[in-house]
Design brief:
- With 245 residues, the protein is of the alpha/beta class.
- Helix content is 33%, strand content 24%.
- It has seven helices and 13 strands.
- It has a six-stranded mixed sheet with strand order 6-4-2-1-12-13.
- Strand 12 and strand 13 form a beta hairpin.
- About 7% of the residues have low confidence.
Length: 245
């Protein structure tokens, strides 16, 4: 096994039509084969699913192939860390599979680099839809009450919340422009992390793959698996942005 680490984000499984979902799943399964063969570690940087809400005894059946692939990577000896996105509430299901989960950003040191990992939504200000979704997913009372709704109703309803959070709203800051420039709402947060001494900041959330490196600093946005099918890679102390084909 080579000391290679992969980073992936924003597949949003369950968000699109049948044909696109089939393509995404097949692509992810082929990517999981690469991880099993070459990686020592995989970081999922959030929103792997369009909406993940954990009932105590129910797992959505349409995610079976994806969750199975993750479990098989873990069984192959790959260490997997799953950082929740703004569309996910991760519970005991993943921990029981031996996968480390976090609702917050993650700081690691690998291959002589100090890295800051986050889904990225905590860097973005002003999106009302995301704020509502975050409030819903993290308030314990809301979680307990939502579990009272039957999954056949609760899961489709959750997808409505999810689609609402992706729509541009009047109270949203602009998200276009150069990913590494001042017009990107994530950029001020990235700069702050560099000032704190991090060598690399690795994010998702924007669905816009980006790689910028200067001196000993690297900003990597791993993009998405809805349109770009891009991911991050750390090998021999070097971060790169890769595209799956």
């Amino acid at each position: 096994m080579k000391p290679i680490i992969y980073f992936i984000s924003d597949a949003h499984f369950g968000a699109e039509g049948h044909e696109k979902e089939i393509r995404k799943v097949k692509t992810f399964l082929s990517f999981s084969n690469l991880v099993r063969e070459k990686a020592e570690e995989l970081f999922i940087l959030g929103d792997l699913f369009d909406f993940w809400f954990e009932y105590k005894r129910v797992i959505p059946t349409n995610y079976f192939r994806v969750t199975k692939a993750i479990y098989e990577m873990k069984e192959a000896g790959i260490k997997i860390t799953y950082i929740a996105g703004n569309h996910e509430w991760l519970g005991s299901f993943w921990n029981e599979m031996g996968i480390v989960t976090s609702r917050n950003a993650y700081e690691i040191e690998r291959q002589n680099l100090r890295l800051f990992l986050s889904h990225g939504d905590d860097f973005q200000k002003g999106n009302l839809g995301n704020k509502i979704l975050q409030w819903f997913l993290h308030l314990p009372l809301n979680i307990s009450l939502y579990r009272l709704i039957h999954p056949d109703l609760g899961i489709p309803l959750a997808h409505l919340f999810s689609r609402f959070s992706r729509r541009p709203l009047p109270l949203s800051l602009p998200t276009g422009g150069r990913e590494g420039g001042g017009s990107c709402p994530l950029w001020p947060g990235v700069q702050e992390k560099f000032k704190e001494g991090f060598n690399g900041v690795i994010l998702g959330h924007t669905h816009k793959p980006k790689f910028e490196s200067w001196q000993d600093k690297t900003y990597l946005n791993v993009g998405d698996w809805m349109e770009h099918f891009t991911y991050g890679k750390l090998e021999n102390g070097r971060l790169t942005l890769e595209r799956w084909s």
